[in-house]
Amino acid sequence: MDLRAALNLVEAANQPTDIHIRKLSYPLDSLEPVMSKNCVDVHYNILTKNYFKKYAATGDLFQKAGAVLHNDYYWPMMQPFKSKNEPSPALGESIEKAHQSLSKFKTAVQEAALTVQGNGWVLIMQDLQIQTIQNHLLKPGILWAIDIWEHATVDHNFNREKFFKNYWNILNWTAVEESITK
Ligand SMILES: [Fe+2]
Q1: 93 CA to middle of ligand 1, Å?
Q2: Neighbours of ion ligand 1 (CB under 5 A)
Q3: If you measure from the C-alpha of residue 97 to the centroid of ligand 1, how many angstroms do you get, rounded to a whole number?
Q4: Is 149 domain-assigned?
């Protein structure tokens, strides 16, 4: 979703029935052992859906729009656990151009996550640069988002390092690539 689409969401806030969360393309238990069935269930079915429901409420509209948008760049970017999981050669090449190598990129993403005190998001932008935010504020130009609110790491005792080491096995590189704005 681009900024225009995000702003359309903001405008649509007065018509909450028009806002739908995208359905998961994978079963609730398929992210295990990185994310348990229970974690996905609570996190997606309750927390994320609540953002959508509360979205039309007054106040903090941009926070709520961000929460909706970031979750929309988060859930579709995961897939059932794969022990060998690599980006396509084309995406791999873009990552190498921006970060020298895939492993340096992964390390940079992990290090960014560790700099966030408490809750927040790691956002990988369309130019493959990495940003972090500690709230839900709307950011334009996102390629994909990684939730580092506490509930996202609950299965690893809130150990983000451990979570990120395993996160790459459930990342949907194809969805990431499809999210690139041409
Ligand atoms: Fe979340």
Answers
A1: 30
A2: 147, 149
A3: 30
A4: yes
* Position 83 in a domain: no
**CA–CA distance from 124 to each of 14, 127, 133, 181 (Å)?**
30, 8, 11, 13
93 and 32 in a common domain: no
Ligand 1 geometric centre to CA of 173 (Å)? 20
pTM of the model: 0.84
41 CA to middle of ligand 1, Å?
A: 11
Whether 69 and 107 share a structural domain: no
Check residue 128 and give its pLDDT.
97
Give pLDDT tens digits for 114-156: 999 888 999 999 999 999 999 888 888 999 999 998 888 889 8
Do the domain assignments include residue 167? yes
Does 35 map to a domain? yes
Residue 53 is part of which domain span? 3-77
For the chain, give the longest Cα–Cα distance. 45
The rounded Å distance from CA 31 to ligand 1 centre is 15
Residues 166 and 100 in one domain: yes
Measured in angstroms, how far is the CA atom of residue 89 from the centroid of ligand 1? Answer: 30
Can you spell out the DSSP letters for 85-141? ----HHHHHHHHHHHSSHHHHHHHHHHHHHHS-SS-EEEEETTS-EEEESS----SS
